[in-house]
Every structure is written in C-alpha cells, then in structure tokens.
Design brief:
2 copies of one chain form a homodimer.
Chain A (H helix, E strand, L loop, with lengths): L1 E4 L20 E6 L8 E7 L5 E3 L20 E8 L6 E2 L1 H4 L9 E5 L14 E2 L1 H10 L3 E4 L12 H7 L4 E4 L9 E9 L7 E10 L3
Helix pairs in contact in A: 2-3
Chain lengths: 208, 208
C-alpha cells in the first residue's frame, strides 16, 4: 500500500485564485511560551483556497451546502487521467477515449500540476466536456487547477455538473501521480451551511 | 466497505476546550449573490478546535511542527477500544488487557463521545497510561476528549507521548463506533510551521 498526498500546502505564500490577496490564508499565534504553557495557532482562510470541495451554494443562491455531501461518497475508487498535453481547456473529445462510467470519480491531471504559481490561463474543463460528464452521471471530478473553469460567462461547467449533484474538487496536486486506478480519500473539514470546505486529499495505490 | 465519519462538526455552537470563547470557530461571508456572481466564505478557527492532530510544538518550544508528520503514518489499521466504563482517567491497568503492540494506532472510546457539551471532568489518559504507551512505542493515539489530558501539572501525558514522536489526535467522535479493527484515515489540513491542524477523521470497516 502506498499513500500519495495530492493536497496543496497551505501557507501565506501559496498560489491563490487570480493572486487575490484576500484569498491568501493567514496563521496567527493564539498563545506561546512567552505568555502561556502551550503553543497554539489560529487559522484564517477562504474556504476555496487550496485543495477544496465545492458545494452547490457556491454557484446557486438556493444551492445545497457542504454538509449535504456524505463522506462515504468521497471515499473509494478513482481514476487519474493524464491530460497534461491539453492546452487551454479539456473538451469532450479529450475525455471520450477514457470510456468514463456512471458513478465514477475521475481526476484530471493537467499541466496545472507542474507549477506552483497561479496561471491566469490555467487548463479547465470546457462546457462541452462538463455536459458530457453530466450526461454520463459521474460521481465527482477533481482537477489540479484552482478553478474547474475560467472565461466562461455564467459558469456553465460548474452549473452543468452541480445540476446533477456531481462533486467538484479543485486544487489537487498531481505532478508525481501516474495515470491509473487508485483508492481516493477526499477529506474536507466538517463544516456546515457554507459553499465549500478546504480538504486534505490522498490516493492509495496497490490497494486491491 | 463501510465508511464511518468520526469527526466533530465545526460550527459556532460546537463544544470547545473549557468553553473558551476564543476557541469558537467563526465563518463569515466573503461574497455572495448580492455583490458577486458566486458565494464564498471565510473560516477562522483555533487549530486545536474540533478534531485535530497535535504537533510537538504544542508542548515544546523547540518541538517539531505539523508538516513533520507524514500523511502515510496517519493512514492504516487502527483498533478502537471501548473504555466507556472509565471514570476520571484511563490508567495503565485499563489498557493492559488489550495487548497493545509496537507501532499500533489505537483509538480510545470513552464516555466523552456521548455528550456534545464540554465536560470539565472529561475522561483523559493518565500519566501512567501514557508512559506505558510510550514504552510500547505505539504509532499514535486518538481520543474523544478535546484534550488527551487534564489536571496534570506539566502535561506529562502529552510529553511522554511526544518525546517518543507518538501522534496525538483529540476530539474524535465515537458514539456509534463499535470496538474492533478498522482502516483509519486522519486527514489534517496541510498546514506547516505550527502546533496542530484541524482534521477530518474516518474509519473504514469491512476493509480486509
């Protein structure tokens, strides 16, 4: 059994969406040995920073919130596809060769995984690919960009997927992950009532 | 395969250590549909709130920090022990019957799991039990209290364990978990340089 960490490191210098300063996490010291007998820290972060799981509220005013996604739907087999040759965006034609099945978890490895700087032209999932995945009825999709789409007015990729309650994980790191089958665990913080949760994400190889 | 969520729900009303208000998490809205095209939230929390993994810096000024704990050490077999009969604190005598082995992960189910109010007399691991676990050289211990000790000047339980680099997870929820063997995943946020990280924790049953 081999465990692969596919999570983004969280710190003040990490890449964030469009380099917006308000998306940078901050850690402060709550107490230390100068004023207490223990050392404790506080964390402040936007829940869409780093590796995270979206909830439908992110896109829809009456959308479901993060606690509506049961943990057991985030744990199980997943396939990693190598799409690192794709420029711009992933299309339906890029996905067709993989014979994607209903209720599958898929993980999209793109050139996004090979840089820790935010790329304004990050590779994303184009509308036609999202509609194809929605039609199949996959369970969820993870991608190594901080967004699953960009430059599509009205967010049709997010909305096509969310309308079918297909889960979206953004910001995984896949540089060292080979294409293939794994046992996946997406472990978001157990928050409630909101639009996303930061997560630790891992793959287990040689698990069968 | 059955997935059991053993994490504490994170919200403004959750139990926190000694009911200290500064330990309560806060969620704020970063933007919503009144001023943006998406809904996003911010999270502020003490990293020792809810289910979390301690790092040695919590107790030692020169202690190692959270990123020093490799994810693969937090994933694997674990045993849950039913100690719900124990009052006050868990002693070496309480643990002897379980024949605990070197490099094991153990999970201590106590009466702490049966209340969502903070109990100032929560069940903890007494110094003699911690020294016994340190002598065995277990890999890690999880408990359903928000602390693994209380009322022990100088924190000998934390320090006995940390001196052997035995990992400590506090604040798991075990009410519905039967004693026995599981596949465990402790998934802390991928923070660095600090004294702990909030985590999602889960057990998988029927995994062999």
């Amino acid at each position: 059994m081999k465990v692969y960490d596919i999570s983004m490191l969280i710190n003040a210098d990490m890449q964030v969406y469009k380099n917006k300063p308000e998306k940078k996490p901050a850690v402060t010291t709550a107490c230390d040995f100068s004023n207490a007998t223990v050392h404790e820290s506080n964390l402040f972060m936007n829940v869409h920073t780093g590796t995270h799981l979206d909830a439908n509220l992110h896109m829809f005013p009456d959308g479901s919130t993060i606690e509506s996604i049961p943990l057991e739907r985030l744990v199980g087999p997943a396939r990693v596809f190598d799409l690192s040759h794709v420029e711009d965006g992933i299309t339906k034609a890029d996905l067709l060769p993989f014979n994607i099945q209903n209720d599958e978890w898929i993980i999209l490895k793109t050139k996004n995984s090979f840089s820790e700087e935010f790329d304004f032209d990050f590779v994303y999932v184009k509308q036609d690919a999202a509609e194809y995945l929605a039609e199949i009825g996959i369970r969820g999709v993870a991608i190594d960009g901080l967004g699953i789409e960009r430059a599509q007015p009205g967010y049709p990729t997010h909305k096509s997927l969310m309308n079918k309650d297909i889960y979206i994980v953004e910001g995984v790191r896949l540089k060292d992950i080979e294409a293939g089958s794994y046992f996946m665990v997406i472990a978001p913080l157990k928050l409630e009532g909101i639009d996303a949760a930061p997560a630790r994400a891992l793959l287990i190889g040689d698990w069968k």
